[in-house]
Design a protein that fits this description.
about 500 residues, alpha/beta, 60s Ribosomal Protein L30, Chain: A, 3 domains, 19 strands, 15 helices, fumarase, five-stranded mixed β-barrel
Length: about 500
């Protein structure tokens, strides 16, 4: 029999969430560095470089790897011989949520609160990132095993479920599905698969599979020992043959690993779930036996490759305060540029309000004419910072607003991550605008280019307010140029079927 104290459990949850906000696990760093070493696409290699440099910076600075610090998911395996010492009569779920609250409100490393109550209605921010999504099992033993994860919205939105026929190919479905996901999940990352059970069991298995170590290269050396191993290797190879590459710009590595958990299922069924993990890859496993809070050891600095991010001397610099429309029209898809000057920010909620004001014939609170808008919801700054980590959010969600903003406001450009849809690309071409891409998974690195920040409108939206950033040499890639050429179409097409070794 062991007794778990309330304070020890809460502290362990809080400490683990802080830990995974700024530390990548060594296995993930190793896999990402392996992808960097093998990469032949200069655009993809540049993106992976930013991810690895950002990772080291976050580990050293104890600041979030990504501005989207995620929705917290907790897997609990509670031994049936465990007792709880809770002076405040808190339930286990309440203790978990108190740990989340303390982690996300830690003044030394503020984490972005992204959780909204009333999801189909008012969508009001809970302010402390609670509640977590909690899965609890009772098991034999006298300890509590805990897996804590923080899942970003970009990758979570790409989760998929299919109820296949028993004779269907799981590998075919996975490969076709990944090909349709776009780059909003910030590849390269890990793919989690759940096979069997029922629909909800398959989804849970896929999420749990992501909690396993990244070790596909060990499996490639040792060889498959069973059908699941064979399926992992087949899907890994076929997904990477798609040529999607880092950030979807084309390259050799899309999946760093494929993890699979399965469960017996009905004779008429073959449920298959796919859940991708992004380049943040935040999760941690610890156990409590009543002896105290979890002791978390920082990874040794030797796990990170010795590299820095330096754009080439030939990289073009653009001053957005003075740039002409004609100069912007000379930018070409796939080109890397460094931005300086003032940019606006705005995500889903801000865009929705701007469109509502336009439809009502009212004046906008900000003048968008000739401006660039950055799709970002930054982390709050700590002492000494202008802004916290401020990487891009998925641009596709803003596609439905793009035509009206370009047509009615004179907006000149947009910055985000991942691809744009065909309709948005057509609008960009028609209005001779541009769409630039920043690297998802390099939020702290990006924030270092931001020299000032102030809220201009919709302050009550918190991280979704409209800011004005002044930036200096912010690295971006031209993803859609004024002629409608899109790197997320041309890049993967070029690299498809080039084999990875």
């Amino acid at each position: 029999m062991s007794t778990i104290k309330q304070d020890h459990f809460i502290q362990s949850i809080a400490d683990s969430l802080q830990y995974i906000s700024y530390y990548h696990s060594p296995d993930f760093i190793k896999a990402m560095h392996h992808a960097w070493e093998k990469e032949q696409s200069s655009a993809a290699k540049d993106a992976i470089t930013q991810i690895l440099v950002n990772s080291r910076m976050c580990a050293e600075g104890h600041r979030p790897i990504c501005q989207d610090t995620g929705i917290v998911t907790v897997f609990l395996a509670i031994g049936m011989e465990v007792q709880w010492n809770s002076p405040d009569k808190m339930t286990v779920d309440e203790m978990v949520n108190e740990g989340v609250r303390q982690a996300y409100q830690n003044p030394n490393n503020v984490l972005r609160a992204s959780i909204l109550a009333d999801p189909a209605g008012q969508r009001v921010n809970t302010k402390d990132n609670t509640p977590a999504v909690i899965h609890t099992r009772l098991v034999a033993g006298n300890k509590v095993d805990v897996i804590v994860a923080a899942k970003g919205g970009g990758s979570e939105n790409k989760a998929r479920l299919a109820m296949l026929n028993p004779s269907d190919s799981v590998a075919d479905w996975v490969v076709n599905t990944v090909a349709s996901l776009g780059a909003g999940w910030c590849p390269p990352g890990v793919l989690g698969l759940g096979i069997g059970g029922t629909s909800e069991k398959a989804m849970l298995l896929a999420k749990e599979a992501l909690m396993q170590p990244v070790n596909i290269h060990d499996l490639m050396i040792s060889g498959a020992q069973n059908r699941v191993d064979e399926l992992r290797l087949e899907i890994y190879q076929r997904v990477n043959d798609l040529g999607i590459g880092a950030q979807g710009v084309g390259g050799l590595t899309t999946a760093l690993d494929v993890k699979i958990l399965d469960y017996p299922t009905h004779a008429a069924s073959l449920p298959v779930a796919l859940v991708p993990n992004c380049a943040a890859n935040r999760h941690l496993h610890f156990s409590l036996d009543g002896s105290g809070a979890a002791e978390l050891t920082a990874p040794d600095s030797s796990h990170w490759p010795d590299m820095s991010y330096q754009p080439s001397e030939s990289t073009r610099k653009i001053n957005l305060d003075t740039v002409s429309k004609l100069e912007l029209e000379t930018l070409r898809s796939g080109e890397t540029v460094l931005l300086s000057g003032k940019i606006l920010t705005g995500r889903d909620a801000a865009h929705k309000r701007l469109i509502a004001l336009l439809n009502q014939g009212e004046k906008l609170p900000v003048d968008l004419n000739g401006r660039f808008i950055y799709y970002v919801g930054p982390v709050d700054p700590i002492e000494g910072e202008v802004v916290g980590p401020a990487g891009p959010t998925t641009a596709t969600r803003m596609d439905k607003f793009t035509e009206q903003l370009l047509a009615e406001t004179g907006l000149q450009g947009m910055i985000g991550k991942a691809e744009r849809g065909d309709q948005a690309i057509a609008s960009i071409k028609a209005h001779k605008a541009v769409y630039l891409m920043a690297v998802g998974g390099a939020a702290y690195l990006v924030s270092k280019a931001i020299k000032s920040a102030k809220v201009l409108a919709f302050a009550e939206l918190g991280m979704e307010a409209i800011y004005e950033f002044e930036v200096k040499d912010m690295p971006v890639m031209v993803a859609v140029d004024s002629e409608g050429q899109a790197v997320h179409k041309t890049g993967p097409a070029q690299w498809q079927k080039i084999q990875i070794t």
